[in-house]
Amino acid sequence: MALVYLGLGTNLGDKKRNLNDAILKISQKVGEITCQSGIYVSKSWGFESENEFLNVVVLVETNLLPLDLFVKTQEIERELGRTAKTAKGYADRLIDIDILLYDKEIIDTPELKIPHPLLTERDFVLIPLLEITPDLVHPVSGNKIEDLLK
């Protein structure tokens, strides 16, 4: 079993329902959710939007290999109404599921990069990560999440 941290975000529609629906589908299709952060509100990141985001981080135990996990999270996004991702930049979205960490693995392929390459720049991910796993260490930098927030 692998321990996987997933970041969920939404800024369109019934945002709490979007998160709850995604969490339910993750538990059905990915694995057991063993921990979940509180819901955090954040402004858009990387683009301008009037819609605030709701963000959550979940810890999941899964038997899926990293690329299979990526395929499954993309499938869940589509099932929940996510349209094709923009070719450049970011846009408003019903749901976004990012693989933040997969055990302590470092993966760098054209399809998949783990840890998430922007993890260390996003407080809306770092704060909920710190909430659920205070001693977590970033596998590339070797820094605790707490130190990355400073």
Can you tell me about this structure?
The protein has 150 residues and is α+β, with helices and mostly antiparallel strands. It has a single domain (2-117), classed as Alpha-Beta Plaits (2-Layer Sandwich), CATH 3.30.70. It contains 4 helices and 7 strands. Strand 6 (107-108) and strand 7 (113-114) form a beta hairpin. Helix 1 crosses helix 2 (66-79). The longest helix has 15 residues, at 15-29. It is globular. The N and C termini lie far apart (32 Å).
Q: Which terms summarize this structure?
A:
150 residues; alpha+beta; Alpha-Beta Plaits; five-stranded antiparallel sheet; two-stranded antiparallel sheet; 4 helices; 29% helix
SSE map:
Layout: E1 2-10, H1 15-29, E2 31-36, E3 40-42, E4 53-62, H2 66-79, E5 96-102, E6 107-108, E7 113-114, H3 123-132, H4 145-148
Antiparallel strand pairs: 1-4, 1-5, 2-4, 3-4, 6-7
